[in-house]
Structures are given as C-alpha cells and as structure tokens.
Amino acid sequence: MARSIMIQGTASSVGKSLVVAGLCRLLRNAGYRVAPFKAQNMSLNSFVTAEGGEMGRAQVVQAQAAGIAPSVLMNPILLKPSGNAHSQLIVLGEARGTYTAEQYYELVPDLEATVRDAYRQLAQQYEVVVLEGAGSPAEINLRHRDLVNMGMAHLAGAPVLLVGDIDKGGVFAALLGTKMLLSPADQQMIRGVVINKFRGSRAVLEPGLRQLEHLMGVPCLGVIPYTRVQLDEEDGAIEELEAGAPALEHADADFTVAVVRLPHISNFTDFDTLARLPRTRMIYAWQPRDLQGAALVILPGSKNTVADLLHLRTSGMERAVCEHARRGGFVIGICGGYQMLGTRILDPQRVESPVAEVEGMGLLAVTTTFAARKRTCQVQGRFLAGAGEWTRDLAGRPFQGYEIHMGRSQAAPGVPPLVAVTRDDGSQVTDGAASCDGRVIGTYVHGLLDDPVIAAGLINHVRRMRGLPEIEVSDADWRTSCQREHDRWAEILGANLDLDALGRIMGLDLKRAPAGGPAGAGGQAGPGGRGLPAAGESSTSFIAPVR
C-alpha cells in the first residue's frame, strides 16, 4: 500500500489544493509514483475523464502535477450546487440525482464504502497518495458523518498537515483553535502545521511560531510566501468572481471581454486563457453597467440554466446583453450560456427546475430540451467554415474539449453549426450555432478556448471588426507554460518546507534524485484510464489567471 500525507486547512480557500498540487510535483520530481485524492468535493468546476466520468477540476490539476491522467478514483464524490439548498450528487463520475444536505447525509454510510474502495485502488497502484481535506476539520457538527477530513485521515492512516492562511489574519488562533475543537484521537493525526500566504518579516513571525509549536505540541513545517500561482484552485472563494473585483488585464489592454457572472456559474476556467491574451482585459460582469465598453460578452456555463436566465431577466442583464448584440457587439455562449441565447428552453420532465418552459434570449435560432441523462464525454473536432467570419482563420483547426450537459439543443433549419466533433464513443456530430449576422455563436464544448490559437483567433475577428490590430500568441510557449508553472510552484514549496521533517513523517526521502527522470513523465495513464496526451502536448492547459 502507498505511503500517504493529508493536507487539511483551518478554513476554505487557505491554499489546500495548491499545496497538494505542489507536493504531487515535488514527489514526482523525486521519482515517486504519486496520485492526489479528495474523497468529497463541492465544486462547479468539473472535468470529464477519458472514460466519460465527471470529477472536480482541482484534482485534474493535481493529477497533471503528478504526471498522470485524471481518474474519478481521485475524486469519488462530487457535489455540484444547483440552488435552493440542493446539489447534484456525482459518484465515481456518474450523476446519481439531486439532494438536499439532509438527504445527502443519509447516504453517507453507503458512500463511505465507495470512498474506501476508491482510495484503496489508488493506494495499490501508486507509491504515494497526497490527500486533500475540505473546508475545516473543526466543523464539529459534521464530524460524525465526515468522509473528507479526519474521517478520511483515519481511514487512510494518513498523517495530517494543517494549513492556515496568515493573509486572512488570526492564523495562530485558527490553527490552535482548530486543534482544540478536535477529539483526542483526531488531534493525534496532526503531525505539523504550515502557514501559507505570508507577506511579512520571518524574523518578526518567529517568536509566534515557537509559542504556537509549544501550545500545539507539533512543529511548524513551513512558512510559504504569498505567491501568485497560475494554476486552478477550488472555486468556492475565487477572488476575481466577487462583485467589485479588479479586472484581469495587461497594462496595454485595448480590448475588454465581459464574462456574465451567473449565480450558478460553472466551469469558469473556460476563460482563463482569454485573460492571459496580450492587450486583453477581462472582467466578470455582475450588473448591466459592467457591460459598457465591452467588445465581447460571454455567457458561461451554468448548473441551473433556467434559474440563471430568469435572474438575468429580472436584473436587467438580459436586456443589456441583447442591446450589446443589437448595437453590433459580439456574444459567445458556452453550454448553459449557449442554451440561454436560444429561443426556448423546455424541461418537460422537470430535470433542472419546476419550470416546464421558458423563453430564451432569442439571439440564436436554437431550442433546448432537457433530458433525464447527463451527457459527459471528451470530444475532439474541428471548426467549420460555414459559421461565418468568426471562424475564417480557424476553419479546419482541430481542438480537444469535453461536454457536460443535460440539455439537447436543436438549431432551426439553415442555421450553420460551429464545429464538427467526434465524441469518445466514436459518434460524429455537429455542434453549436451562429446567428445570421455572424455576431453571436454558441457551443456545448468546454475547453474550446483553452487553446490560445483558437482564443486569439476568435478575439482577432472581433478586433478586426473594431479596427484594432490583431494579437499574436506562441502556441509552443503556451503548450509548456503549465508544466513550467507546476515546476516553479513546487520549487517555491520545497524551498519553504522542512522536507527532512516531512520526509520522516511520511517515511520517504523527498530529496532523492530520480532514476531515469521524474516518474510519470510522458503522461502515463492513471488507474483504468486510456491516458491523456503527454505533459505539455494537450491543447488543454488547465492554467488559471493569477490568484
């Protein structure tokens, strides 16, 4: 069985996901076969594996750091909030239904066996498993049905590192208070603490560290400096999604992309590459005035399309988007956003909401009907020339992506599709639609814009129409940038953690030189997987804007 280490936190958004990713990269570079694991994840950012299973995107990034293909074993339980205190439950990549919190917790005894089996399969196939907790283990009202924090640590026999975010303030109280709220048995699992996002003087901090170690009875294994890391985190508290957050922009930006901030926004990582394009400014638009000055408006994916559309209608945002299009502006819809741009959305089986039918925004001649079964699959395809000037420079260009949706959309006769795709079951279909004036397009394909050449191609069409010079990107440089960022983050983490002490806790040599290169190089397949392209070869980068 594999050796293990578990990263828990004093709260959400303290950096657990990134610490796990960094440790996976450190262990990979030391020559170990390593895999990430998070028993239960609550996230609207998801990914589809080669086998068609849905899992949290953060574990995909961690798998990439480890040099392996993502597998649903790494995230056996995924909860996707859908509004009104309900979440869709996904078990081992397959949707099981929508439940309230109370209903979900009734299922926990049965789900524990699923979690245990998934972990054991990973532990039998890898030398090391790096586990991630969720929220805080000090949520004492949930301890008796915990699957993801101390309950998982005991199940795996994994020593725990407790991470606190000093940038939030009160980190000493958070670390000590967390331990004090745990049972004696749970306290024994904590073998060290780590302070994250430190900006100040280490000399000034040092006396507090010594006192904290005395009070907690465990060592401080590291103080990690505040670092801007361009890798996906969990989506619970991403700063740029908050109202009033500053734009993601370059100093010479002359082009604004406005992503409409839906209440149930999902897979917003679709736009990370756009935010990194030269001369581009990207904002998340909460209200109609946020669209002023935008050259391109994007309607993103949604976990509750009907509810989000009705929100846009009552808030005035729908009218603002339509006015933007009528004034000659450009609009892109992806997945749920694509459905909203159509003429009608039908839900006869009440799959998503109690509303059987709702009028769409009418910017695309498309009707969507929700089906009982979710479509989750990886796709590859190419752009079609018939979608107008949008794809003039992209016609025939291949891409990789994935679909996650309940709706089935049918375009009216004569409406040109955007792309031709081949799904992972071998079926070949056309997808998406373009408006008659060529200013509005929509598609179900997530990850389409991860390819910088495609993102720049779509942007350049709008730039030409607005009389702006085109931008250029280096495909080769972007293809390897994620791998460089993983290595950079692992180097920072390794320089600020006591690797000798951590190695003793895990029973490993974390500084050993790998024989024959880092383990996992070449994009080895994960358990039961057909594998992904080698590291750096996929058009899917998983890179997020600076945090």
In the CATH classification, which architecture of the largest domain applies?
Answer: 3-Layer(aba) Sandwich
What's the CATH H-level superfamily name of the largest domain?
P-loop containing nucleotide triphosphate hydrolases
Helix content: 25-40%
CATH topology of the largest domain: Rossmann fold
Helices and strands: which structural class?
alpha/beta
The unreliable regions are 516-547
Rg over C-alpha atoms, rounded to the nearest angstrom: 23 Å
Spatial strand sequence of the major β-sheet? 13-16-14-17-19-27-26
CATH class of the largest domain: Alpha Beta
Number of helices: 14
Beta fraction = 25-35%
Write up this protein.
- Helices cover 29% and strands 27% of the residues.
- With 547 residues, the chain is an alpha/beta fold.
- The protein folds into 2 domains: 3-232 and 481-506, 3-Layer(aba) Sandwich (Rossmann fold), CATH 3.40.50.300; 255-467, Rossmann fold (3-Layer(aba) Sandwich), CATH 3.40.50.
- Strand 11, helix 7 (202-216) and strand 12 (220-225) form a beta-alpha-beta unit.
- Helix 1 packs parallel to helix 2, helix 1 packs across helix 13 (475-496) and helix 5 runs parallel beside helix 7.
- The longest helix is centred in the first third of the chain and has 25 residues, at 101-125.
